[in-house]
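Bench notes, afternoon.
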Amino acid sequence: MTSFDSFGIKSEILEALNEMNFTTPTEVQEKAIPLAMEGQDLIVRSKTGTGKTGAFLVPILNSTQASDRMTALVILPTRELALQVFSVAKDMAAFSKVKSTVVYGGASIENQIKELRRNPSIVIGTPGRIIDLMKRGELDVSGIRFLVLDEADVMLDLGFIEDIELIVSKMPKKKQSMLFSATIPEQILKLTRRFMKNPQFLKVGAEEQMTVNTISHSFAISTSSRKVPALMAYINEYNPVKSIIFAETKRGADRLYNVLASQGMNATVIHGDLSQAQREKALSEFRNGSRFLIATNVAARGLDITDVTDVINFDLPGEPFIYVHRVGRSARMGNTGNAFTIINEDEIDAIKAIERTVKIHMMRIELNQDPYLEVGRDIGYSHYKNRENNGGRGNRNFNRSGDRRPPRRSNGGHGNGRRFNNDRRN
């Protein structure tokens, strides 16, 4: 079995890895670190939660001295991801004293400028704030030796590709570039051809295995007016241990949080209207005990929380690749997970499209929603009236604790969660 010391890494980095209890490289680290240490450009297809952060930070830190100024730029799509990578970078550099800083929107730019003026070796940040600092003359990328684009497909999804092109255009042509992404669409490949030199293409797990082998997929058909009762019925029947529940809108996420709180459930919420301090508090609460995190798509991108057991789609994702990103929040680091989606009758074709595209089977379940029809009404939440302008989709809900009973693939009834025999494969 490969160990980190077999890579020829500096002793101070090995010491830090040991302190972090990183003793055996993950598959992506084992494949990427030796090539990166040789100076090769890399395109790595691997989902979040497989150890990608170490795969690019270890070779960068190994080639960087504490006195080096602005030698590496790591670009990520969200502030949460940027903060997570920054935290890992600090821990990995604990003994080498290589300084990092993090820049992102929604926080004081003045404080970030102060940190940049202390000449860090590594800058980690989101595209918009990086460009803002470049325009102010506070972030000079002309001497960059290492460029990392992490969660590249998410940046494509969020419309950051032009920003990436602008940032890269200001960098020297001679640099080492590494791109990490759960999927590699053609637009990403076109981008890499513009700034990479003969990159090595690494695949960690077959693409169809990203969500198939370790996640159980199921769905239930409801109506827009009864989606909250459907969710309550699901959670009471299957008792998810730790769940992220996706809301289509920020307003919907807040409403669902209020519903859960009214039911005495341990939940927290995260979306773009919250301040950075509120978002960090919400993530901390979820990591340290909250059972449910209600999140919008953008806010949950790249969240690295290893013990999520379930992802619940209160609203059906608009595209199959968004489904992949969502459900990838569970089944981290080789664990198993569960993905449950609530749909309207007219959304069955979208389920079939997900099954075809992602090459999975989504099992249909039937839930007894009647006992939960009044949930939320005492706080003014009416699933009959409060439908938002989101393509006919409604809002969401959750429920209590206990160990999870795994979904059954049987052909008979069991309580309120009978599985159908006429499930479809595509």
